[in-house]
Amino acid sequence: MPKSYRDGLPITPDKFVDQLMRLKRGSISRRDFLGLTGLGVATAVMARELGIMPTPAYAAENLGDRMSIATWPNYHDPQTFENFKAETGVAVEVNVFGSNEEMLAKLQAGGSGWSLFVPTNYTISTYKKLGIIEPLDMAKLANFDGKSEDARFTAEGTIDGTIYAVPKNWGTTGFAVNTKKLAKPMSSWKEFWDTAMAEADGRTMVHDYQLTTIGNALKYYGYSFNSLKQDELAKAEELLLKVKPHLFAVSSDYQPGMRAGDAWMTMCWTNDGAQLHRDIPEITYVLGKEGGEIWTDFYAIPKDAPNKPAGYALLNYLMNPRVAVKEHLANGAPCTDARVNALLPKEVLDNPILYPAADLLKPLEFGAAATLTDPGRAELMARFKSA
Amino acid sequence: MPAGSQPAFSMRRSLFRKNLVTALLLAPAALWLVVFLVLPFVAIAIFSVGERAPEGGYQAALTLAQYANLPARATAFWNTIVLAPAGALACLLVAYPVAYYLALRAPQRWRLILLALIVIPFWTSLLMRTYAWMYILGGRGIPALLAYVGIEDLRLINTPGAVLLGIVYGYLPLMILPIYVSLERLDRRLLEASADLGATPLATFLGVTLRLSLPGVMTGFSLVMILLLGEYLIPTLLGGGKVFFIGNALVDLFLQSRNWPFGSAIAITLVLVSVVVLIVANRISTRLSGARRVDLI
Question: pLDDT tens digits, residue range A282-297?
Fold first, then answer.
């Protein structure tokens, strides 16, 4: 939530007038007036911006008092941002998104106001191509250690040898089931879609996200999760249109519905699956045996970031294994960083939701960059939603 | 120098000053309209004859292809054209008795308080109030209460009924206020005259009260309907994203598929539809109020 415009002001308008009247009456000196009203600081800042006074070399100190991050629902430990504020004085405004498309749209339009955001692996090449993200200045990210990262998950952050994004965590896209309502064991996307039209009628959620909703419908027929083939997409569309009237919702924010018991089954990312299962044990997480998505989420800094120093400072803070471990305990997705894994409790590392068996991981596919910009998939999604 | 030229000159000067003052007073509003209405509209019109860039966004072109593609959103247009008047009608059915009570039946000293109670919810944003309904209708709200009395697994949220409820709740004051104003001005002697001439209460209501409040009804109806034509929030939050208005199609075109030209073409079409609705509503309302001028004195 954006805060009031008054938050950044050194003094309230009323108090300012108060001090001004005191100055006019001569009861305070001009120097005190400038100090009390913050005008002195403002003048100093102006002078520095205008080059009248030299900029201090310790740029890291000049972080401002606020920054904005774009990320996913239920993705961070809120305490992380509170701690960051306590340490640096920078308040973090968190913007939550339901799809990579939406993040890209905001960045393409310009003026997003974000100084840090969390894109998924397959989108980074497009961001780089469009010149929206900047090559990371690794000197400012002393806490990042490339050698401790699992290369399986980090490759797409580096393009032509330049690092554009560093990983947050990886995960899978499966589905969550409330086993109290749907007792029959399920293990495939075919069962997911068939159940949605039968026992889970009116109680199933799919993502408001073309990649996973179309991708997992493609898996019903055993096609590639990333397919762009006309005939395969037509089959997926047929299934989606058939399922549509039986759905509870088309939304990527499915935790509230699952927790309230309105929804009994939903497409689900690892971290949400882990959180739901932790709080409500009868909600289980299933990976379709046909395959589906495996992903890595990264941190990247937009080229037009209004507060790059704070963006780098927060990113560096998040790369500190001691901070990251708390993030992972709250978020629930598996980490790419061996230093963090060393700090995680054993029951987390043994959790099959986070670390599925090898035979379930094998058929999973990373999202393909082409799906992000393909107009055919976008239109299919629109037809599905408007049906 | 002729004697008369001095006052004429000063008169002209005062006229000029008056015009200048008028122009200065109008300037902020005019500037506002140009910067935030006319220029964006021109930009959208230009986008609408362009093409989608390969990675999404806009790419310059001169084509009507986007307009030719409008049928691809026919369902969304159809939903809007059916649901906007239906929502406005539902609003009207709820609002009219309330406005009638406020204007003609409520005790004078309560009237202001009751009006305030109707307006106060408007101080909270529509988003917040709609979110509140998500929790009232959600599984831990009314269905949880009903489970106590043995009605299990009832689902209220994400149904067409929930969307309709949200619409009526959200826009009710916009319907009540204009009807209230037109009923409040109603000359009670007309009601007495109607009764004296032997009309039944129902005939008096239909022939006098309802007829004379029709301009208020039309104002409220078109106000709510215009807003519903661009509705996006309520179907998303209370309909689970399954009820797809043209407003939702617009949001998706800009935020998901990043097809600015097609989105712009739909936006232009929506503006045209809204203008047509306004003109028709205005026509009906003038025709009805033409018969309204009845003076007893």
Answer: 999 999 999 999 999 9
Best mutation target, B52, B154, B242, to test chain A (most A CBs within 10 A): B242
Clarify whether residues A277 and A329 are in a common domain.
no
SS3 A297: strand
The closest of B159, B77, B173 to B118, measured between CA atoms, is: B173
**Which chain A residue lies closest to B235 (C-alpha atoms)?**
A249
Q: Which residue has 């927060």 as its token pair?
A: A314
Residues A270 and A199 grouped into a single domain: yes
A171 neighbors A333 (Cβ within 8 angstroms)? yes
Q: Is A54 contained in some domain?
A: no
Residue A48 to residues A39, A54, A56, A82, A175, Cα–Cα distance (Å):
14, 6, 9, 30, 54
CATH number at residue A253: 3.40.190.10
In terms of domains, do A71 and A122 share one? yes
For the domain bounded by B73-290, which CATH number is listed? 1.10.3720.10
Q: Indicate yes or no: CB of A382 within 8 angstroms of CB of B73.
A: yes
Distance of residue B256 Cα from the nearest chain A Cα, in angstroms: 5
Q: Would you say residue A373 has pLDDT above 70?
A: yes
pLDDT of residue A50: 47
A278 and A329 in a single domain? The answer is no
pLDDT at residue A57, as a whole number: 34
Residues A218 and A311 in one domain: no
| pLDDT tens column, A62-103 | 899 999 999 998 899 999 999 999 999 999 999 998 889 999
Q: How confident is the model at residue A28 (pLDDT cuts 50, 70, 90)?
A: low
Overall average pLDDT of the A311-325 stretch = 95
pTM, two decimal places: 0.81
Q: Within chain A, where are the H helices? A: 13-25, 30-37, 39-49, 78-88, 100-109, 124-129, 151-154, 189-196, 210-220, 230-243, 255-260, 270-279, 308-318, 321-331, 338-341, 346-349, 358-361, 369-373, 375-386
Answer yes or no: is pLDDT of A191 > 90.
yes
Do A340 and A330 sit in the same domain of this protein? yes
- A101/A37 same-domain check: no
Tokens 């554009």 — which residue?
A164
Total structural domains in chain A? 3
Residues A357 and A253 in one domain: yes
What is the model's pLDDT at position A17? Answer: 62
Q: Which domain holds residue A323?
A: 59-170+296-349
Task: Pick A129's closest partner by Cβ from B55, B253, B256.
Answer: B55
Query: Which residues of chain B have a pLDDT value below 50?
Result: 1, 3-4, 293-297
Domain ranges of chain B: 1-34, 73-290
A15 part of contact set with chain B, CB < 8 Å: no
Chain B residues near residue A129 by CB distance under 8 angstroms: 55
Chain B contact for A129, CB < 8 A? Answer: yes
Question: How many CB pairs (< 8 A) connect A and B?
Answer: 95
Cβ distance B230 to B296 under 8 Å?
Answer: no
Task: Look at residue A305 and tell me if it is in a domain.
Answer: yes
Q: Do residue B56 and residue A382 have CB atoms under 8 angstroms apart? A: no
Residue A257: band (very low, low, confident or very high) from pLDDT cuts 50, 70, 90: very high
Say whether pLDDT at A56 is over 50: no
